[in-house]
Write a structure and sequence with these properties.
mainly alpha, 8 helices, rod-shaped
Length: about 220
């Protein structure tokens, strides 16, 4: 695209600004070279001037003034174009960052929502766990014939103690959610502290410090 068409654009893109810069730089460089050539020619015609010959100085001065003006105009417009190009690049960068931050916020919100849903399911598991324990205790109480706890090994059967049922549930969940206890060394104290925190801030509250750190520079 010719320079006059590029300069008439209302909203050039970065590629078009770059083409303007290239053409303006070429004009300025060519004009600067023309000024230098005319100056050198003027110096070389000194002998003609000394003997009163026409050295072409008048025509050369006009040509030099025109070339110098072209150089100045091209450099001034080039400076303006570069400023506009930089402003556009900065604006596009900010818009790209905002789109990225918007996506980040949406992803973190989806994470929180999923944790809230998990917490609701955990509450359901807790209610079902209560039914399991209560039904087991009632079944044992109502059984017409009671097992011999000492001689049949009844005390050692899995599921008799409520905590064993809780462990079975946790083990099942452990296998489904990427085996965290196998991947991380978690002490019972640390586990209890995390559980206590969740009771105060909810399961999704576990993410708050990390999410705040991710969003710190937005």
């Amino acid at each position: 695209m010719e320079l006059k068409d590029l300069l008439s654009l209302e909203s050039p893109d970065l590629e078009q600004y770059a083409e303007m810069e290239n053409q303006l730089f070429a004009i300025a460089k060519k004009a600067k070279g023309e000024v230098a050539r005319l100056d050198e020619e003027g110096r070389a015609r000194g002998a003609d001037r000394l003997v009163g010959k026409d050295d072409g100085g008048e025509a050369r001065a006009i040509a030099r003034a025109e070339a110098a003006q072209r150089q100045s105009d091209a450099e001034n417009v080039l400076s303006e174009i570069r400023s506009k190009s930089s402003a556009l690049e900065a604006r596009l960068g900010r818009e790209a960052d905002e789109r990225a931050w918007s996506e980040v916020r949406a992803l973190l919100n989806a994470r929180v929502k999923a944790m809230d849903e998990i917490e609701a399911l955990v509450q359901q598991i807790g209610a079902l766990y209560g039914k399991v324990i209560a039904a087991g205790a009632e079944a044992q109480a109502k059984a017409p014939a009671k097992p011999n706890h000492r001689e049949t090994g009844f005390n050692h059967l899995p599921g008799r103690i409520p905590a064993q049922v809780g462990i079975a549930i946790m083990a099942n969940l452990h296998a489904v959610i990427d085996s965290p206890f196998a991947r991380m060394a978690v002490s019972t104290e640390q586990f209890a502290n995390i559980a206590s925190h969740q009771r105060h801030d909810g399961l999704a509250g576990f993410f708050a410090p990390l999410h705040n750190a991710i969003l710190l520079d937005q």
